Amino acid sequence: MPGLSLDPSLLWTAKEAFRYPENISEIRDNLQKLGDWTIEAGLYHSEDGKKSYDIGALDLEQLEVDHTALFINGFPAARAHPFAGWYENEAIVFGPSDNKVRQFYSRYGVKYDSSQVSADHIMVELEFLAIMAEKYEETGDPFYYMALRDMISSYMENWVFRFLKNIEENAGTNYYRYLAAVLTTLFNQLKTELREVA
Amino acid sequence: MGVSRRNFLKFSGGSIAAVVGAGLLTNGFIDNEVTNAAAESGGPTIAYKHGVCGICEMACAMTGKIENGRLVKLEGKPGDQHAKGSLCAKGNAGINMLYDPDRLKAPMLKTTAGRILGQDPGWKKLTWDDAINRAASEIKKAIDQYGPQSVMWIGTHTGVDFLRAIGSPNDITHQSTCNAVRQLACQLTLDCVNYVPDFDNSKYIMAFGWDQLGKGKNSFARGPIQAKYQNGAKLIVFDPRLSTTASKADEWIPIRPGTDLAVILAMLNVIIAEQRYNAEYIAAYVTGFQELTEEVKKYTPEWAANLSDVPADTIRRIAREFSGGCPALIPIHKREAIQSRPGGFELVRASLALMAITGNIERKGGIMIPRVGGLNYVGPNAQAPDPKVIQRVDGGHMFPLAVKGPLMGPGLYQSVPDMILADQPYPIKVAIVYAQSLQSMPNPQKWAQAFAKLDYLININIYPDDIATMADLVLPEPVYLERYEVSPRQTNARYVQIALAEPMIEPLYDTKEVGEIKHLIAKQLGLDEYLTPVGKSVLDYRISKSGTNLDTALANGGLISGSMDFVPKSLNQLQTESGKIQIYSPKLKEMGYSPLPFFDESWLMHPQNPDEFYMVTSRPPMHRHAKTHNMRWLNEIMPEGYICINSSKAAALGIADGDTIELSTEFGKDQGKAKLTEGIRPDTICILHGFGQKSPFLQLVKNDGMNDGVIMPSWPKEKSIEVKDPTGACLDCQMIVKVRKVG
Fold first, then answer.
1. Given CA atoms B12, B45, A84, B19 in this order, what sign does their dihedral have?
2. Mean per-residue pLDDT for A55-62?
């Protein structure tokens, strides 16, 4: 099995980027880190990619309103529901998709341990990827590599690009538009890399 | 570094290899006392929890099946006298409400200007500390500048302790559109707020507009059917529409809307004139029979037939059957069209009088006073004085029968928006709206204007509905499946029984129960000592009257039941004026109202033109007012409401089945789909209530029909005085509707 070109810490950062915005400097740092990676990797999504990563001043209240509208209670609904089941037309949280991915986690020895966020939520799935990537980096055990590959191909690929497109199309701030663009690049990279090896 | 960032996932105990082979894992967050055997052998973890349904006031006791931490099924408890082992469609679909992705998930602050129905409020999530501070600050500002009376709480008596603490008399309830008429008539006559029809043992059931089969209220719906088919009871239904109950009846009598009371008074006339009453029973338990005898002499069957289209011979025959000696009853629930017109209060009283003089109160197969299980009272640590301002914004203080004192009684829901808009009797600046829907408010457009006029609107809610859309601050509550509850059986309580609920799962979101919300705001205002304590220990104390506590009772099946034997209650020690069944009321006379049930022909309004109709309302069995329309399973069964119109009459107006029609009154107009049927009087239309939700937030509710409230009146309090109604009832069917095809 090859090494992963992606630093696992980027996956933790991606997960943190979906937290409710509270601290501007942390938000800026996270964004910078993700942006730097795409630029270094030459993976930015357009000719003007570098320029588009310059999001200018960050206003905390604007970010709060945008986050609420995109992921919590937006108008007329959350504009980018952050869980897989929504994109499976389940229209309920903690539905079959949640159950399915919980079972998947358990196959890789990881126990879902939250009652407030569904197991198919973007933050939980990113956390799973981060844990598996770290473990793979530490041990080189192909077991973890399979976990990453299966998570992307069997679960996240089915919904995450539509989710990110929803963010890009509906975000009210450059921050979330930019985040969606960066993560689209990141997931495309993961998808390609893991597929090539498989 | 990674470990510290983990919030949701952790490695299971034991080696990875061992876990991988083990299949599904148990969830750490479920405290599961029931069944782990399956999980140990590789199957799902399954638990069962006790619950009480929160969709309607029947509060059916139920069991929830929790699989791998998710609620997957609700079942009615066989031992519960309300559920009797099954739940209705709405109860089953409670899971949809719990897991609805559109639920409110955290306190929300509106960041856009104005208070406009259907606007994008640009919500920003708040912490609870921030939200409570903002609520308290706005309430304090209003109290300091305009006095405590400028703060009002809308929600069925849930804010009484809070209002008393701040000194406001404005406890606004929706009851004048709902159960006030029945409640006040029962209190006056029988010293109880409702009565229980003993369908199981009845031989004769006479219903006026009562259609619990059609509305799917499980506990009541099965009663007449079992009585008819298991007990051989005769079922008679008076209704302008061939309702579901009417369709199962031995006789359907399509009575003219608004005249049911006339028919009941004529039956009293027949029974008394023919001496078919139970004289011994009357002598022992009834006050006012002589006065009633004199009063009903004028209400002859011929007089009633002329008004109601029910032949005089039919009235006589049914009166004779009802008084034939077999156990007989008249079921009355609430929000039926018969109670939504002038004389609704008199109708309930006349029905009680009919059952009283035939000896059918506290009789097997007649009606019973509910057997309600007692709970220990829990009051605040300190009692706040009564509010200094007695005048209420709804005018309730002018109706002493209904509003017996400050912060008591139902009041006049319908008169509130006009009073707010006119700053009468004083300005209202802050409103806290709890668990109320704009769809259930008569004349919602006027309510929206009134909300827009306030300085601040706080909404405590589960869903982002129309009122939440307008609110400056939205405070989310947990769904009933996430809460503890102690629920004495009340509405249909044939024997003492208390049902208990525990959270089926941990609350999904950042929510708080209304009791805690009140406390936190009161604490910020330095008034929390005046608030009723909340929490599990309080529930423990409340049920300790039954010699148990919550955990023990839950471990023992979640139901505390008394003897099921029928022991008649004493009917000469009631807390009525005379201690007996009170047909004649000196108190009403003293207040300037009729002491006896009576009919006034000036109440009647009639269609004058071919496009004009009487209106009645009903509800479908799969929806409960406006609160269930975003529940997926129910929405799939019935996504849209309709308006029933007689086929022949519709043809004359050029209306085909499924056409869009406009209904208009002097109060407003709205559109919906026509459903043609021969099963309704040609002069009457029937609208299904609860549809017409306009909130863009509710994703499943799109163009779901007409909102009956839009065309309903919001009469001022003077109207209630004019029609001699001591209850201040809403009279929301007191109008004539124009119909025209629009598409």
1. positive
2. 82
B9 touches chain A (CB under 8 A): yes
The reply to whether B537 touches chain A by the CB within 8 Å rule is no
- Going from the N-terminus, what domains does chain B have, and what CATH number goes with each? 108-178+379-497 (3.40.50.740), 196-368+569-590 (3.40.228.10), 602-741 (2.40.40.20)
DSSP readout, B387-433?
PS----TT-GGG-TTT--STT-S---GGGHHHHHHTT-SS---EEEE
Q: How far apart are CA B202 and CA B228, in angstroms?
A: 9
d(CA B10, CA A127): 10
- On the question of pLDDT at B37 being above 50, the answer is no
User: Which positions ≥6 away from A149 have C-beta within 8 Å?
Assistant: A194, A195, A197, A198
Determine which of B124, B462, B475, B509 to mutate to test the interface with A (most A C-beta atoms within 10 Å). Answer: B124
Contact A69 B121 (CB under 8 A): no
Whether A84 shows a pLDDT value over 70: the answer reads yes
At CA B90, angle to CA B86 and CA B91, rounded to 5?
45
Could you write out the DSSP letters of every residue in A94-123? TSHHHHHHHHHHHHTTEEE--SSS-TTBHH
Quick check: B336 pLDDT over 80?
no
Cα–Cα distance, B493 to B240 (Å, whole number): 30
Of A65, A81, A134, the CB nearest to B124: A65
Contact state of A65 with B9 under an 8 Å Cβ cutoff: no
How many CB atoms are located within 10 Å of the residue B315 CB?
26
Q: Is the pLDDT of residue B13 over 60?
A: no
Tell if the CB–CB gap between B70 and A94 is shorter than 8 Å. yes
CA distance B655 to B644: 12
CB of B43 within 8 Å of any CB in chain A?
no
Q: Which of B9, B105, B111 sits opposite A111 (nearest CB)?
A: B9
Give Cβ neighbours of residue A126 (< 8 Å, ≥ 6 apart). Answer: A11, A12, A14, A15, A18
Q: Which of A115, A117, A142, A139 is nearest to A127 (CA)?
A: A117
How close does chain A come to B66, measured CA to CA in Å?
A: 12
Q: What is the pLDDT of residues A6-17, one digit of tens each?
A: 889 999 999 999
Q: Percent helix, strand and coil across chain A, each rounded to 5?
A: 65, 5, 30
Q: Which amino acid is at A51?
A: K
Helix ranges restricted to H, B69-168:
89-92, 94-98, 128-146, 160-166
Q: Which of B327, B338, B89 is nearest to B210 (CA)?
A: B338
DSSP-derived pairing of the beta strands B684-688 and B612-618: parallel
Contact A110 B9 (CB under 8 A): yes
- What per-residue confidence (pLDDT) applies to B22? 27
Residue B281 Cα to chain centre, angstroms: 33
Minimum-distance CB partner of B7 among A103, A105, A127: A127
Mutant choice from A68, A83, A87, A163 vs B, greatest count of B C-beta within 10 A:
A68
Contact B357, B275 (CB under 8 A): no
Q: Residue A87: is its pLDDT beyond 70?
A: yes
> DSSP assignment, residue B644?
E
Q: Which of B1, B9, B510 sits opposite A124 (nearest CB)?
A: B9
B23 touches A at CB < 8 Å: yes
| A164, A182 contact by CB (below 8 A) | no
Q: Is the pLDDT of residue A51 over 60?
A: no
Prediction ipTM score: 0.83
Alpha-carbon torsion, ordered A194, A198, B3, B9, to 10 deg? 100
Instruction: List, in order, residues 6 or more apart from B144 with CB less than 8 Å away.
Output: none
Distance in angstroms (rounded) separating the CA atoms of residues A84 and A123? 11
Q: Which two tokens stand for residue B505?
A: 């799962």
Q: Which amino acid is at B656?
A: A
Give the Cα separation of B497 and B146 in Å (integer): 46
